[in-house]
Specification:
The protein is globular. It has an 8-stranded parallel β-barrel with strand order 1-2-3-4-5-6-7-8, surrounded by 8 helices. The protein is an alpha/beta fold and 268 residues long. β1, α2 and β2 form a beta-alpha-beta unit. The longest helix is centred in the C-terminal third of the chain and has 16 residues. Helix content is 39%, strand content 16%. It is built from 12 helices and 8 strands. The protein has a single domain, classed as Alpha-Beta Barrel (TIM Barrel), CATH 3.20.20. The N and C termini lie far apart (57 Å).
Length: 268
């Protein structure tokens, strides 16, 4: 019998009125990805932009989380049609492309996810996990229905163009990145600065005017709640590596050597 693929993030967003809670998976570890997927979070961001992830590790993570309800969203490192094609062929159904600053760039991203005549995606589904090696009936004709495309607004220029970017046919949602946005505004590391928050909310308004779902990165609980109240539908609340870093620091603070004490000598 033909196989059926999991619902896309586009479909999950359309099926609920609440904001979907996500965790950023930066470790590059299939084991850690599986642990996060089993936590009952709604979605995971498997990151190729700022993490030690290549095609093989992304594939392993997609396979590791496939048994769980969490929806994986793979962030491509750049809007490269070749990389987009490869990641889709790995079986990623949901992709996020960073640093999209204009509607023209968004059009190019969508084209890279569509087979001709609607786009430029290379045809290799019979060889790839995307169509489960030709076990997904009608994949070539219906591929667009199995893929959701999200783009990232994270510069002052992109905020100005947010409505036009969101209006592009085939863009299923827009994710706002406060960190790079702050940097582009000369406020590096100040994601909570009032001017940055105002710019994020201005991007929200532009995206919402086109009826597209809004995503955002917000690790501070009060800020996350405020963004959800402002219309965010899918939110990254934490990252695997940050959770591990803070938790191990807490253990060290409670049980480790006092300040100035280097502890016992290393054994060899």
């Amino acid at each position: 019998m033909p196989l059926h693929l999991a619902p896309t993030l586009r479909e999950r967003l359309a099926s609920t009125d609440r904001a979907l809670a996500g965790v950023w998976v930066c470790s590059g570890s299939p084991l850690v990805a599986e642990i996060c997927a089993g936590s009952r979070v709604d979605w995971l961001l498997i990151d190729m932009e700022h993490s030690p992830n290549g095609l093989e590790s992304v594939l392993a993570q997609l396979q590791a989380v496939a048994a769980y309800d969490a929806t994986p969203l793979v962030r491509i490192p750049t809007a490269d049609p070749v990389v987009i094609k490869q990641v889709l062929d790995l079986g990623a159904q949901n992709i996020l492309v960073p640093m999209v600053n204009s509607a023209e760039e968004a059009v190019g991203v969508v084209a890279a996810t569509r087979y001709p005549p609607h786009g430029i995606r290379g045809v290799g589904s019979a060889l790839a996990r995307s169509a489960r090696w030709n076990r997904v009936e009608g994949y070539l004709a219906d591929a667009a229905s199995h893929v959701s495309v999200f783009v990232q607004v994270e510069t002052a220029q992109a905020v100005d163009n947010a409505a036009e970017i969101a209006a592009v046919d085939g863009v299923d949602g827009v994710f706002v990145g406060p960190s790079d946005l702050a940097a582009s505004m000369g406020l590096l590391g100040q994601q909570g600065h009032p001017d940055v928050v105002a710019a994020v909310l201005r991007a929200f308004e532009g995206i919402a005017s086109q009826g597209k779902p809004i995503g955002v990165n917000a690790f501070v609980a009060d800020q996350a709640r405020a963004y959800i109240e402002a219309g965010a539908r899918f939110v990254l609340h934490a990252a695997d590596v940050a959770i591990l870093a803070r938790a191990t620091e807490q253990v060290a603070a409670e049980w480790g050597a006092p300040d100035g004490d280097e502890g016992p000598p290393a054994s060899y």
